[in-house]
Amino acid sequence: MTMSNGEIQVRVAGWMVKGQCLKIDGRLGPRTSAAVKRFQAGYGLARTGTVNAQTERKLRALGQPNAFPIHFYLNEFKTKSGEGFSGGKVASKTVRRNVRRLAWKLEAMRRKSGDKVTWVNSAFRSIAHNNRVGGSGDSKHLYGIAADVTIKGLSVSRMAALSYSSGFSGVIKYPTHVHVDSRAEYTYGSSGWYLP
Fold first, then answer.
1. How many beta carbons lie within 10 A of that of residue 25, not counting itself?
2. pLDDT (tens digit per residue) in 177-188
3. Which residues are identified as catalytic?
4. Quick one: how far is CA 168 from the chain centroid?
5. CA distance 150 to 146
6. Which CATH code for domain 67-196?
7. Measured in whole angstroms, how far is the alpha carbon of residue 151 from the centre of its chain?
């Protein structure tokens, strides 16, 4: 069965250039084609810009049976207070969809790092957990569209640089990790860009 256009977009959304994100609309237009070319280059495939059989095999090989990328696990993205994907500002089904898209961007970022181990320190947060850790009331974590990550052996500046080309529209540097989010793609809170 051929992969749907929307699924292709989810899986290549992390192969953008700084200041661009990929709208998941099921239309394989110029921006998607450019992301596919960068994905192909990143994996040593012929840079056609179309999802040929070889490219689709690679996109499938990078996914688990639950359609999450192979280097990340759904449980890594759950709130740390035991509520799973519940208790945020959107329904748990929406959070699951959001964190899956987030994870595919992190998969691209990991690849660009030279396949270095990438840790998800925090992703979705319930309102209760967000309050406990002192998060802001409009935190993107409350929607499952943000993660705090560390990549083994990389400086914060290098992690931030990688995130700029991985489809993220919000990046915040901390002493030991970077916060990445997709604020420009959603109507949740601020929809502007923040790329320092």
1. 11
2. 999 999 999 987
3. 177
4. 7
5. 13
6. 3.30.1380.10
7. 14
* Per-residue pLDDT at 192: 81
CB burial string 47-73: b at 16+ within 10 A, e below: eebebeeebeebbeebbeeeebbeebe
Cα Rg of the chain, angstroms: 16
Q: Where are the alpha helices (DSSP H) in 19-155?
A: 30-42, 53-61, 92-112, 127-132
Q: What is the mean pLDDT of the chain?
A: 95
Looking at domain 1-61, its CATH class is mainly alpha
Q: Give the HSE-up count for residue 113: Cα atoms under 13 Å, Cβ half-sphere.
A: 29
The residue assigned the tokens 């095999």 is: 57
- Per-domain residue ranges of the chain: 1-61, 67-196
Tell me the mean pLDDT in the region 91-101: 97
